[in-house]
Design brief:
- There is one protein chain.
- By secondary structure, the chain is an alpha+beta fold.
- It has a single domain, classed as Alpha-Beta Plaits (2-Layer Sandwich).
- It is built from seven helices and eight strands, in the order αβαβαβαββαββααβ.
- It has an eight-stranded antiparallel β-barrel.
- The protein is globular.
């Protein structure tokens, strides 16, 4: 064998530690390709990075890419966002599930592989990370109870759209109260009769100190919640009736403030569909 793959190490690692299927953690990353580099970025991410920099890694077991056309970008709110500046920034979103209890193991690998990818000139630098964070799963709220796909299936089920919502609170204590309000009151009410089948709720974790320098440190650790709404209908068709007013309802609770509500549709893997509709 020309390369040392240390095959015996893989056999040892497979025999120990958690190996459940629930999404205990996630990587949620919203990125803006630089103007003029949209096609090159899309091909690099889909043809190489989605696999070599994500899906081929241990314990990252599901992934999906999403895109916001210019039409969808203009639906975002609030206009002044602490997450996206301007609020239209970040036309691609990638979401990945990581096995519960394997966050530290995964992070050791991801830091090492990204160093290697950079060294081997397999990283696109013509992009800006608008919102990139590893996150811990807090809860999932379902519209239809026990019926339908679970959160473990959400990145493989052919959902027609996704809404990213980011909510900030003022303290860890207030975030705990916000999470309880979302889980027991707000989300069940909003999901009833909604095109969204489920909402996953995560809290961000700090990135390691040896992260890549082009990824800024995570904001809102201790005070922020990230929600992913999985839609059975295209967000174009249901936005006005179901996804306006989230900002006001959260503000009225007195527990937090909405910093971003942003709709996306799934990319079509292996194609440049929608790239000509980003600007």
């Amino acid at each position: 064998m020309s390369e040392d793959t240390r095959s015996e190490t893989y056999a040892e690692l497979a025999a120990v530690g958690p190996y459940g299927v629930r999404p205990g953690h996630a990587l949620i990353t919203m990125v803006e390709p630089h103007p003029g580099h949209e096609y090159a970025y899309n091909r690099w991410y889909e043809d190489d990075h989605y696999y070599a920099g994500a899906m081929a890694m241990p314990w990252m077991y599901a992934g999906r890419r999403w895109v916001a056309t210019r039409e969808l970008q203009l639906l975002r709110y609030p206009e002044t966002s602490a997450v996206a500046r301007p609020v239209t920034a970040g036309c691609y979103l990638s979401t990945y599930w990581i096995t519960a209890g394997r966050y530290d193991d995964h992070m050791k690998w991801t830091v090492a592989i990204n160093r290697r990818l950079n060294r081997d000139a397999r990283v696109c630098h013509d992009r800006t990370h608008v919102f990139t964070a590893f996150q811990d799963h807090e809860t999932t709220v379902y519209r239809d109870g026990a019926a339908g796909p679970r959160d473990v299936h959400a990145l493989d089920h052919p959902y027609a759209g996704l809404v990213l919502e980011v909510i900030d609170s003022d303290s860890p204590e207030q975030r705990a109260a916000l999470l309880e309000w979302l889980r027991t009151r707000h989300l069940p009410r909003r999901l009833a009769g909604s095109p969204a089948a489920l909402v996953t709720v995560f809290r961000p974790t700090p990135l390691p100190g040896d992260r890549m320098t082009y990824v800024r440190q995570v904001e809102g650790v201790g005070t922020r919640l990230t929600l992913l709404w999985f839609l059975e209908r295209d967000p174009h068709a249901c936005w006005a009736g179901h996804f306006t007013g989230l900002e006001e309802q959260v503000a009225q609770s007195g527990l937090g403030r909405v910093e971003l509500v942003a709709p996306f549709i799934p990319t079509v893997p292996g194609t440049d569909t929608y790239v000509d509709r980003l600007r």
